[in-house]
Amino acid sequence: MLIALDAMGGDFAPEEPCHGAVLACSKNPRLNIALIGDKNKIEPFLEEVDSSIRSRLRIVHADDVINTEDSPSLSIRRKKNSSLVVGFEMVRSGEADGIVSAGSTGAIAAGGVLLLSRIPGIDRPGFGATLPVLNRPTLLMDVGATVRCKPINLYQFAHMGSIYMKLFQGVEKPSVRLLCNGEEVTKGDDVITAAREMIETSDLNYQGYVEGSDLPKGVADVVICDGFSGNILIKFGEGLGELLKDQFKEEYANHLLPKIGMLFMWPAMKRVLGRFDWEKAGGSPLLGVNGTVIKVHGRSKRNPISFALLGAANFIDKNGVERIREEIAKENINDNI
Amino acid sequence: MLIALDAMGGDFAPEEPCHGAVLACSKNPRLNIALIGDKNKIEPFLEEVDSSIRSRLRIVHADDVINTEDSPSLSIRRKKNSSLVVGFEMVRSGEADGIVSAGSTGAIAAGGVLLLSRIPGIDRPGFGATLPVLNRPTLLMDVGATVRCKPINLYQFAHMGSIYMKLFQGVEKPSVRLLCNGEEVTKGDDVITAAREMIETSDLNYQGYVEGSDLPKGVADVVICDGFSGNILIKFGEGLGELLKDQFKEEYANHLLPKIGMLFMWPAMKRVLGRFDWEKAGGSPLLGVNGTVIKVHGRSKRNPISFALLGAANFIDKNGVERIREEIAKENINDNI
């Protein structure tokens, strides 16, 4: 299995993607990784790598990079020699089995649509993020591929999210909820109302609206929203987590009592914080395109990148793309709307 | 000063609003409160109250209640004898100086517009929520009055939010940011782009887009968004906070080490969590209507309700409504757009 890794994407590229590739290879012996980017910048990070792993890493040179400031679809069309476009072309040609990138969210979504094309029956793709919430994993979708949605987009996300949770979490009949500003059907806007009506009359296991406050409680297998809402929500959660961690660190550094307390609290702290560890979630799959595409947070270091690579390998092993394509075709989800 | 308190609004009505009123009166000796709602249900909670405070509380009977399931504008028009409408009528007639409610967010916004009317120059009102973030208070607006916005609404929120922070936090030239799914100007949607262009060409101290992850860091005095985004965001923050607290409580209950650790950690915990205490924020003012209207969270118990009442008293003392009206008229904010 060969996975294309955009070695130039993210805040710590190419160093952390390179280390992430090594880590992933050490955990999955069937994994081969193509590191795509500036050969001269990548090579130094592979010099010390053990030969058994080095032999499964190859460098594919690409001298351009798509930045977060670039227009997503324009840069996908024009920057033919960027690490991201070269990676997508490897997936399109069948040379690579999937692609992982910590680069621009918009460009990854645009690359998926423009270079791999959408699955028949799907109008827009969506990124699914597995939230580390209480009791069970919850897939939040979309978290940034389709910023503003039509009702049909949310409806299709609900189907793809359900298939994904059935396939990857073994949930027989995944419960689906729509993110809303209240639980009552009078809440939301025209788009959410129309999407709710479509989902209600489908054979999905729809369970109503969910408010932001209930989201961390693990009240559904799949929570659907537009890419704007999903994006601000997961980023806000990350920001709060980081802030809290910083605050405790500061207390720990400046006061004696917390230092002693922490010795006793540490196992509990580790247990609690471990339950909310987004780094282990394995990246966000772009669902709805003809190829395995996993996005990982731009601020990711080696660990989350390695988990995303392992997540991509799992997606490929389970024929994720093919299974979603089959289910969407079989269910004719757009027939009765 | 007389403040109308919707004694039937919120999850713990009428008990907690009644206790909240007593608390607020004990802290502000100039405060008089009209408890509006079912006389028979309210009276039992005032029986034990000290006479010096009891004399400043009066019960105004109203036998109907607006529920969160009711359509906001329909119920404001039809439920003439609901606690909320009776309270708004007291403000409209000048009998009360302001109103506080833990009831339906939509109905409070609709009541403000329909019964008190909008301030000239303002198309839609917005709820401002003071976030207890790092370094400085940040006003997030709107958090639920105008679910989906036109650019002009966001533009006007930016002006009202700035005036509010100047008036109540003493910030000379409040910095304003727009909540977005990225920092680059290519992010957002058509509404956000148009609002940005309007704000950029105004004399507001505009500082760019802000992502969800930076919001907890106190990067701006005023952060503008539509009511849907603001609502899901603050509720998600609350939900995460509650979950974290529950998790630590569970650890504390089931393990010995955290029990010992907590003894040492407690002062630090209190310092850290005290910095994020939304209960002390004093409720969310509805800015843009002709009257002092403060919404407090539906799940509020006596403490946050008392802080909202004290916040309303402060707003009235500083002539908040009059000052916003003056500034909006003076600046002719809609002239050059």
Description:
The structure is a homodimer of 337-residue chains. In chain A, α4 (72-78) crosses α6 (105-116), α5 packs parallel to α6 and α7 crosses α8. The model of chain A has no long low-confidence stretch (mean pLDDT 92). Chain A has helices spanning 15-27, 39-42, 51-54, 72-78, 83-92, 105-116, 151-169, 190-200, 227-254, 256-274, 302-317, 320-331; strands spanning 2-6, 32-37, 57-61, 98-101, 126-131, 138-141, 175-179, 205-210, 222-224, 284-287, 292-295. Chain A has 12 helices and 11 strands. In chain A, 46% of the residues lie in helices and 15% in strands. In chain A, α8 links the parallel β7 and β8 (205-210). Chain A has a domain at 1-122 and 288-337: Isopropylmalate Dehydrogenase. Chains A and B meet through α9 and α10 of A and α9 and α10 of B.
Please provide a brief summary of the model.
The structure is a homodimer of 337-residue chains. By secondary structure, chain A is an alpha/beta fold.
Strand order of the largest sheet of chain A: 3-2-1-4-11-10-5-6-9-7-8
CATH architecture of the domain at 1-122 and 288-337 in chain A: 3-Layer(aba) Sandwich
β-strand amount of chain A: 15-25%
Which structural class is indicated by helix and strand composition of chain A?
Answer: alpha/beta
- Rg estimate of chain A, integer Å: 20 Å
Largest interface pair: A-B, 65 and 64 residues
The general outline of chain A is globular
User: Could you state the CATH homologous superfamily of the domain at 1-122 and 288-337 in chain A?
Assistant: Isopropylmalate Dehydrogenase
Distance between the termini of chain A: 39 Å
Quaternary form: homodimer
